[in-house]
Amino acid sequence: MTKENLKVKDYSVSGEVFELIQNSEYGFLETTPQPSSNTLSDYYESEDYISHTDSKRNLFEKAYHLVRSFSLKKKLNLINSFASEEKKLLDIGCGTGDFLQIAQQNNWVVSGIEPNPQARGIANRKTNGSVFNLDQLLKFNTNSFDVITLWHVLEHLPNLEEQIATFKKLLKPKGTLIIAVPNYKSYDAQYYKAFWAAYDVPRHLWHFNKTSVSNLISKQSFKVDQVKPMWFDSFYVSMLSEKYKTGSMNPVKGFWIGLRSNLKALGTKEASSLIYIIKNS
To answer: From CA 184, how far away is CA 193, in angstroms rounded?
Structure first.
């Protein structure tokens, strides 16, 4: 079975099976069939959807939050290198607002977009009401932001071409777009195949590799300036993939596959997740 017709189960919520079909124009994989706009939110109704809560109920969630605190500092350092005097940041799909909070504490003027009401409420308590629903995207002024970030969000968004056009409109002329997404060319994706947790169908509508990201953004005269690995993602994804494959978390095996994926990525540059730093070209 090839990647183009891989059948993947929704292990988190519905138990339904979806097919991944390669898009002939851009090269990413499309989740098929895709939920309608009316039903998509139903697939996020799970206590295990970790980015919508601050819960630390078990060792896995505690480890997730520990790693997240380290990653937040790395993300802050990254955006600081692209700051202008105004330091205006827009984080799309900001979840419970931890990244916005640390940016705000470091003198960024922050705005966030989060469609989930529960997560948005938590984020607003952390950021003094700086987080909005989706319709706010159309209300921001043109050329407003130094940096727009999407940390594991682009794969969730419908109407990709329209989304990229919106980001282009909202960025300052020398602004930076930062997109982090899973990479289906990574070793852990190849190893786990249909059990790879980062497919996360149908919440992930699209599944990217380097070529497909470049193809997509070039339509708006964007260009990938740098690609950086997210080293921790391979461990988290591999442990979850191990659970989907065998029925138990098996942290030792998951850690080993995550480590192998990272070691291979030192040569291939195909880490489990990649950060794309994108500039106007």
So the answer is: 9
- Evaluated on CA atoms 246, 248, 251, 255, the torsion sign reads positive
Closest to 244 in 3D by CA, of 63, 46, 11: 11
3-state secondary structure of 204: coil
**pLDDT tens track, the chain, 281 positions:** 344 589 999 999 999 999 999 999 999 999 999 999 889 989 988 765 545 455 555 665 666 667 777 899 999 999 999 998 999 999 999 999 999 999 999 999 999 999 999 999 999 999 999 999 999 999 999 999 999 999 999 999 999 999 999 999 999 999 999 999 999 999 999 999 999 999 999 999 999 999 999 999 999 999 999 999 999 999 999 999 999 999 988 899 999 999 999 999 999 999 999 999 999 87
Does pTM surpass 0.85? Answer: yes
Secondary structure of 34-92 as H, E, C letters? CCCCCCHHHHHCCCCCHHHCCCCCCHHHHHHHHHHHHHHHHHHHHHHCCCCCCCEEEEE
* Other Cβ atoms closer than 10 A to 169: 15
